[in-house]
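Researcher: Before we compare anything, I want clean individual predictions. No alignment, no superposition, just each chain on its own. First chain goes here; please echo the sequence and then give the structure tokens.
Model: Echoing the first chain and its structure:
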Amino acid sequence: MSSTYPTPETAAKYPFTPHPFEPLDESVMTERAEEFYQSMATRRSARVFSDKPVPRELIDLAIATAGTAPSGAHQQPWTFVVIGDPKTKRKIREAAEEEEQKNYEGGRMPDEWREVLEPLGTHSNKDYLEIVPWIVVAFEQRYAVRDDGTKAHHYYVKESLGIACGMFIASLHTMGLTTLTHTPSPMKFLSHLLERPSSERPFVLFPIGYPEPGSLVPDLARKPLDEIRVSYP
């Protein structure tokens, strides 16, 4: 056992608990890792969704899973807003399309960005925002507000929320749902529509549901391991 963490002074001042770690046989570890990889390798972003209902408890479980993510100083600087109301989904679609039309048709999007998006076939029509049973918007908490009204700075907010969103996506895929990381730029309209405080800023919008049967996705290949890994030695 390490003699440096936690220090006696820290352990005397703050609560610590035994690490809930259960060692596994290496064969079990490999099997689990391979199964998870093979499952995640089939994950695709959807842009054509079914209106098939999704139980609310599944969305809550995915958010709870995201909430287990590590965060800077354990400040957990995230808020996940769940939208199932048709009127609110329509407002989100209208506002998102207004911004996207400025990007795609209004010349706000740089030519280089258009070029890399072209093989994906994306455009300003976001009808799926009304079709999906659920929308979840992840907000970054830039700071907290203490009881006396003063601000408490949060650290590594984007890094922390990025990890949480990755776990959220993995949870949805594991339970058999699909989503899309939608970031209509700028996204300030989400703060207004969802009445979020000034301490929060929209990070990613997730339409969530089942893909429409027979729908297509771009035929893409992910980089192989040797292109994303560097080993020493």
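Researcher: Okay. Second chain, same rules.
Model: Second chain and its structure:
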Amino acid sequence: MTKLLTLLGLAKKAGRLAVGTENTIESVRKGKSFLVVASESVSDGTKKIISDKTAFYKTQAVFIPVDTVTFGKAFGKTATACVSINDKGFADAVRKLLGGN
């Protein structure tokens, strides 16, 4: 999980992430998002919002086993529910780390 959080931190520094639920949903709506990564510990309401929006706009969403505080620290925040990866290369690298295609 450390490699994944480090990669997401690099994507943030490169300006390729939208951090937070509102920013993530906005990226998904605008068609900028290649992948949404969210903490499994978010509320059921937030999970539903993320799942519904990503399904509607045909964007993949993955929930990782990290609490929101640990997830947020990777981006210099106190707590973060989700991020949108707005770069195909970073999204592909994250999928590879998660064991996907």
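Researcher: What stands out in the second chain?
Model: The CA atoms of residues 95 and 101 lie 6 Å apart. Additionally, The first strand starts at residue 17 and ends at 19.
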